[in-house]
Prior knowledge:
Blueprint: E1 3-8, H1 16-24, E2 29-32, E3 41-45, E4 48-52, E5 66-68, E6 73-74, H2 76-88, E7 96-99, E8 103-104, H3 107-120, H4 132-141, H5 153-164, H6 168-171, H7 182-196, E9 200-201, H8 204-212, E10 217-220, H9 246-251, E11 260-266, E12 269-271, H10 284-292, E13 305-307, H11 311-321, E14 325-329, E15 340-347, E16 353-354, H12 361-366, E17 368-374, H13 392-405, E18 409-413, E19 421-423, H14 428-436
Parallel strand pairs: 1-10, 1-11, 2-5, 2-10, 5-7, 6-8, 7-9, 11-14, 14-18
Antiparallel strand pairs: 3-4, 12-13, 15-16, 15-17, 18-19
Helix pairs in contact: 3-4, 5-7
Bound molecules: inosinic acid.
Amino acid sequence: MPGLVIVGAQWGDEGKGKVVDLLAEQADAVIRFQGGNNAGHTIVREGETFKFHLIPSGILYPGKPCVIGNGVVVDPQVLIGEIDGLRRQGIDLSGLRVSANAHVIMPYHLLLDRAGEARLGKREIGTTKRGIGPCYADKASRLGIRVQDLLDEKILRQKIAAAMEPKAPLLRDFIKDPSLDLHQMTEDYRAFGDRLAPHIADTPPIAWDALDRDRLVVFEGAQGTLLDIDHGTYPFVTSSNPVAGAACVGAGVGPKSIDEVWGISKAYCTRVGAGPFPSELHDEMGDRLREAGHEFGTTTGRARRCGWLDLVALRYAVRVNGLTGLVLTKLDVLTGIDPLPVATSYSGPEGASFEQFPYHQSVLHHVRGETVELPGWHEDITGARSLEDLPENARAYVAFIEEQLGIPVVTVGVGPGREQIIWTESASSVTRQSASA
Ligand code: IMP
């Protein structure tokens, strides 16, 4: 106690990194449980910028156990690049552990991701082209290469050959690509194995030990609920499960180890890549949110699609994840928008109205968010450190969200800085316990 899961409650990019970074200070371990280097976050500490794609945010605390769990897909080249970069910045990496059972993104996964998108043409998913989907597909086909395989040349060569064999027709266009040479690939990936060897471990016991000692363990999700391969807007989703249930599978703990589940949501909504987005704005207001919120991807640099806060989708996220608290980020971006619309239901063709997130793809593609207008505020809120510091209308906005979702808001973000956050009384179930542990 307590195991705390942090998940994206929207389409990713909600600002999970910052809250995980803050919680990590009190945690005994931080464990990433799914996704790969399709994710990305930036942390600014004392004027220095740190960018992560794979390594959990807690790494900035010297010696803190930071685990890349078995549910993550690892591009070793990217991971080694991150390790080298952090080392250059003087960061102690002694706490970094990579699950021996995590799957490895191989050069053919990158090529297949790109080729798959090209084949789809106008119907493309808009993936990050990091090889995530093909890697998870190999995992499910039992043709995956795992981190432990990087330590044994014979096994590695055999497994690469077996994985590439059925892909030959799909890889025909890349036959001359030097990255696909079996001998070279085996050598390169063995070398990556040697580099990663000090960090490779049997990782679930790290979580068990901390939980047995009643210490805080943070399970860090990537992407967001609506990108979940089962519960999101399929097929415009990622290839893993960003929902809270996956924390157990991707870290190796049982459901009873999870005490709290916090969902992260912006005070508005964004999405990258293709797919339904009922509250999307196609006008200058969308541009305004993009500019004010700096809504350009950390991983791909793509401009994010922007829209109003979508409470239909968030109510769904509360249920699918079993959220016990909401981390509301970027409230400051809404300053000066008055009145302030929020989507509370969807309208569909032929006068249909939806209070709940529609499961059917054809419906989902055609619904539009129906908004109610709340009074906005004009005061600068970036200095607020308690709910009382917020203008009345900003407080009412937070209260409206709590009432609509039926869960408390645990923190409110009012700016990009580490200190620009309001911790509400509802966060204390986690912060108080961990402080006294
Ligand atoms: P993939 O995960 O690269 O296969 O991409 C599948 C979909 O998930 C695309 O729409 C991506 O834009 C989206 N996606 C993947 N990772 C992230 C993320 O970290 N934030 C936001 N969207 C993401």
